[in-house]
Each structure stands twice: as C-alpha cells, then as structure tokens.
Amino acid sequence: MLFYKSFLSILISFQLIIVSALINFFSFSLFLYSESVWDKTFTLLGIISVYLLMFSIVYYNFAAGGNIKDKTPFGLRNDYFLFKLDKSDWWGEDTRGNN
Amino acid sequence: MEIINNILTSIGQFNNIVILFGTLFISLFFGLSKKKGLKIFIIIITAVSLAGAFIVTIYNFISGGTFSNFLFSLAAQQVIEICIILFIALNILIFISFNNINKNQFIKIIIIFLFTVCSLVMLSLSSNFIMIFVIFVGLTVGIFQLLAVLNNIDIRGYLVRFFLVSTLAIIVLLTSFSVFYGSTDFKNFNQIFESKNLMTNPLFVIGIVLFSVGIYLYLFIFPFQSSYLKILKRCEQSSMLVIWFLYFPAGIFMFMKIDKILFYFLEKNSLYLTSVFIFIAFACILCGNIGAVKTKSIRRILAFIFLSFLGISLLSFAMAGTGLAGKDRVEWFLIANIVLLILSYLPIYGVITTIEKSKKTNSPDYDSLGNLRGFVKFNKYIGVNFIIILLSFLGLIGTAGFINRYFYIEPFFKLINFQPGKTAINSNMVLNILITATAMIAFIFLAVNILRLIITALGKPKTTQDMEADFPDTSSSINSKIENKIDGSIQFAKFYYFYITVFSLIIIVTGVIGLLEILNINLGLVPFITTGF
Questions:
Q1: Residues B98 and B26 reside in one and the same domain
Q2: Contact B338, B84 (CB under 8 A)
Q3: Domain shared by B223 and B260, yes or no
Q4: Disruptive mutation site among B174, B179, B218, B228 for chain A (greatest number of A CBs within 10 Å)
Q5: How do the domains of chain A map onto residue ranges?
Q6: Contact A45 B224 (CB under 8 A)
Q7: Same domain flag for B191 and B228
Q8: What pLDDT, on a 0 to 100 scale, did the predictor assign at position B484?
C-alpha cells in the first residue's frame, strides 16, 4: 500500500484495513465476550471518527473554491506515494517545485 | 441551585476543558466576522482562557489530587502534560495572531485552533480505549483543518500526502485496539498492566507491536520522514509550530500511555527489545543529524534536528532496558526533551521567521542559512539572547539544556566508576557501550549543527558581491540586492525583544535551579523538583 501511486488505491486499501479491524472486533464480540456493549460503542465511534478524517482529506483534495471537482486537481504527473524517498529526503536541499 | 451545584461537582476536575470549550462557544458567534476589533477581542479571550485553564489545572490538582473514572484519569504526569500543552498553545496563539490577523478567516482559524487544543488536553486525560482513540482521531482532524486553513492551496498535494500517512497510522491503531480487545477484554492500559499473566499472551504482544508501528508511522520517524520534511519546507510560518508542538506531542503522549507495558517487556526480553530501541534511536540520530549538516535551509535543519531528538527520546527506553536509567527517569526524559525543544525552538522560530519575512516571498533563498550572516552584529540584543538559547540547546552548564544532557551522560560515568577492574564482557555491557556510543554521536552531531548556526550568526554580513556570486542567473537579483543592501539589519517587532528575554530568563533560571538540585544544594527557591518526578 505504501507504494500505490493513485489516490483511489490508497483509499481502497485503507478501507480494507478498516474492514479487517471491524471483523476482528465483531468476531471477538460474537464468540468470546458475547455480552459486551463496549465493543459496539468502540466500533461505532471509532469508525465514525476515522471516516470523518478520511472524508475531510478527500473533500480538501477535490475541493476548489467551495466546489468539488470531478477529478484530482493535480493531473497525471502528481502521485500520492506514502513511501517515496528521493535524495532530498535524506541529504542536501529540497527545491520548492519538487514533488 | 442544587442542579447547578451537582453540575459543578460533576465537572470538578474538568474545569480547564470547560473554560476552553466556553471560549470556543463564544468564538463561534463571531466566526464569520471580519472586523479587526472583534479579532483582537477573540485573541484576548482565547489568551485569557488558556492562561486561566493553566492556573485551574494546577489549582485543581493541588486541592483535589488525583482521580480516575471509567473514561478519564488524572495524575501528576497528566498535569505536567496539560500545562505543557497550554503553554505551547499560548505561544502558538501569539504567532498565529501575528501572521494571520489580516486574513478574512482569522476567527475560524482560532475556533479550529481552540478545538485542537481542547482535544489534546482531553487526549492527555483519557484512559479508556474508546476515549483515547476517538479523541486522537478528532485531534488529527483538528490539526488537518488548522493546517489546511492556514496554508495556501498550492501546497495541497503535500498536505494531503502528510495526512494520508497519519490516517494510515490511525487505522493501524484501530486494528491494534481490536487485537487488544480480543486478547484481554479490558478497557484501558492500566487494567492490562495490572494483570501480568495476560501480557504473555502472543495476541496481546501483536497488539502492542501494531500500536508501536502506528505511533512510529504517526511520528514520521525514519524512513517515513519524506512527507514531513516536504511540508515543513513549504508551509506557512505558523504551521511549523502546529506540526512540531501540537501534532508531534500527541504522538509522544500516546506512546507514553503504553510505556509501563513497554517497561515490562523490556525487563523480560531486555536483550532483543533494547537492541531494537538502540537501532531505531541510532538510525534517527544519525540520519537526522547528517541530513541537518548537509542542508543550507534553516527550516530543514530544524526539522531534521527535531527528528533526531525523537531518536534521543527513544534511546532512553534502551537505557531502561539495560538498567542505566529507571522508569521514572525515562518518563522524565520524554517530558524534558519536549520542554527543551519548546524552550529552544519557539524563540529561534521567532528569529528565523522574521528573517524569512525580510526576504522576498518568492525568493529561492528565503530560509537559507546565509541569511543569518551578520544578524548578531546588527541586532546585538536579540543576537545575544539567540546565542544563549542555542548554547542552552547545546547543553551549556547553568542553562536548561545542561540538566537534560547531565542525566543522559551521568549513568555512563557511574557505570565506569562502579566497574573499574571488571573485564568479563556480557551482552549487557555491549549494549551499554552501544548506548554510550549512540548518545555521544547524538550530542557531538547536535553540537556541530548548533555551532554551525552560531558561527553563521556571528559571521560577517553579506556584501552585494557575495549575493551576486550566490545567484548569478537570477533576473530579479537586482531587486533583492536593493532590498537587502545591508544584509543582517532586520527589523524585529518590539514585542519580540520582550518575548526572547522571557525565554532566555526561563532557560537560565531553570538551568540554575536544576544545577543546584544536581549539586544537592536546597535553597527552597521553588516548591517542586525540576530534575525528576
């Protein structure tokens, strides 16, 4: 996931981890601690807050002056690598236009 | 009347949060206003509420003592954390106000800022997993919005990438909480810590590993530093403080919530875990400091040194693993490192941002180290204070930085004194030697970086010939030459003379009090101890 270039791929893989965490919660709550309400509360509040964060990032990324555009504003040459290292991240200077 | 009394009793320990939320509520009414008078009014009530919350926190703790309930708990550590947060918030408010008061959305910025500070205070207080997680995510949303509203749209790509990494960290944390729940059915870390047999559960260990990975990612520790370094180089000035002192402390406070469990594992598996901590700390310190040496941009130097300080904090866990430092001392180190960074970075930040502002905004060298040249010669008063603060950061005796260095170095001297003739080499001794080497490398590199800043600031001012040589091809070089004819003569705001003096005094007074405590001289100057909990 760290090496996905596209914004959409990153978001989809985020969902997959969230779903796996959810399955974890529910499997434990159904079979192990069946009388607990605590985990449902956690799941509900946790998922709402994580989606709020993701929503605000997605909205910010696509918004332009209050209107949402139908595509990312950066075009093809921009990428969203979460783990992208070039020389400037370790060593020497970083120029302003460098992505 | 009885209802009011009941409400007051139930919010007893949360007066600080009530004050901050009250100010937030009042600010909401003026959110759309663009009037300067109202902006100043909002700044004043925010500053008063932050100061009030600071006093109330200490007063409540002295009068009410510790408390804990299903969701929150308060002990001395939380009080110190909250006081640090409120002190930071007051300083960031000053800089945000200076930089953004003319913006139309200024009051909205303050509203989001207050929300972020409230979340950070509540994060420090929360003990239940639900509270910890939800407030942590809320805080990240707050910081994201604050940075988004402070910055121009042209750095959007960098900001999005920065927060995509944070989001990934948060989702990893969510997974770790689901594993904690499955392995223990407990609701907070204290309960887990109290039942020692559960900690041998492999599922629980996986939870702790996932939690640590999440925090590691959240703090952008090497090799994930890319987005952090890129945004810090390009962001608007007050955003730097928001990232350093609202975003990073949140990660460190989260890490401190599991420190007792980490100590338990360190005692059990001291060899492997200590080696891991030494490796991470060494990588952080080496990469951070070498990165700082190789760049001429002041922003990047400070960003790299901040990361190397995270490495120094992690080194203290390795010290606990080999018995060089106690558990209390490690907690002290984590807090002391944050405090030292605050005391050093805030006044330095003031100097470098003023220098940046004196340059053209689109100038390629707006944050170049060369701009510091001759600064002390033309601004003697601020220059002297600037050097005192840098020397304290370096660890000069009698300043706040020295107390921090002393407790890192002291255990090694004790070790040498206790084992003068011992020749048998065991794994613990090898680890101790590695920790010593890492600490020495950290402080030598740090000294090199700070001396570089001091020497540049003391150097001769730039002449016009130098500037021509620096930018021979720049078409606008004639304009910039005229603007910076006497390079180094920078106009500081009058307030800033007062600000930097206060910080120098705090650094010297803390340093002297700490030195007296180290020398075991008790003059009864302050009612608390600065060199330990």
A1: yes
A2: yes
A3: yes
A4: B174
A5: 7-89
A6: no
A7: yes
A8: 47
Nearest residue to B218 (alpha-carbon basis) of B171, B159, B280, B165:
B165
Chain B neighbors of A45, CB-CB under 8 A: 130, 133-134
Q: What does the pLDDT look like over B255-287, one tens digit per residue?
A: 999 998 999 888 887 788 999 999 999 999 999
At B154, is the pLDDT very low, low, confident or very high (cuts 50, 70, 90)?
confident
Q: Which of B250, B267, B284 is the last residue of a domain?
A: B267
pLDDT digits (tens, 9 = 90+) for B327-355: 899 999 999 999 999 999 999 999 999 98
Q: Are residues B33 and B105 in the same domain?
A: yes
Cβ of A14 within 8 Å of Cβ of B171? The answer is yes
Residues B173 and B107 in one domain: no
Give the count of domains, chain B: 2
Report the gap between the CA of B71 and the closest CA in chain A (Å): 12
The answer to whether residue A85 neighbours chain B at the CB level (below 8 Å) is yes
Residue of B nearest to A53 (CA): B141
Summarize pLDDT for A27-85 with one digit per residue, the tens. Answer: 887 777 777 788 888 999 999 999 999 999 998 888 765 555 555 555 445 678 888 78
Indicate whether B296 belongs to any domain. no
Written as one string, the DSSP assignment of chain A is -TT--SHHHHHHHHHHHHHHHHHHHHHHHHHTSTT-SHHHHHHHHHHHHHHHHHHHHHHHHHEETTEEPSS-TT-TT----SS---GGGTSS---TT--
Whether B186 and B258 map to the same domain: the answer is yes
CB B119 within 8 A of CB B142: yes
Binary contact (A82, B163; C-beta < 8 A):
no
Average pLDDT in chain B: 88
Instruction: Residue B182: give the domain boundaries.
Output: 154-267
- Would you say B192 and B180 are in contact if contact means Cβ atoms under 8 Å apart? yes
Give the pLDDT confidence score for residue B269 in this predicted structure: 77
- Give residues 10 to 49 of A whose Cβ lies within 8 Å of B: 10, 14, 17-18, 20-22, 24-25, 27-29, 32-33, 36, 38-39, 41-42, 45-46, 49
The two tokens of residue A44 are: 């509900």
| 3-state SS class at B152 | coil
ipTM of predicted assembly, 2 dp: 0.90
Interface residue of B71, B131, B147, B161 to substitute, partner A, most A CBs within 10 Å:
B161
Average pLDDT over residues B14-37: 92
Write the DSSP symbol of residue B460: P
Distance between CA B523 and CA B505 in Å, rounded? 19
Residues of chain A with Cβ-Cβ distance to B369 below 8 Å are none
Residue B382 belongs to some domain of the structure: no
- Is the predicted pLDDT of residue B46 greater than 70, yes or no? yes
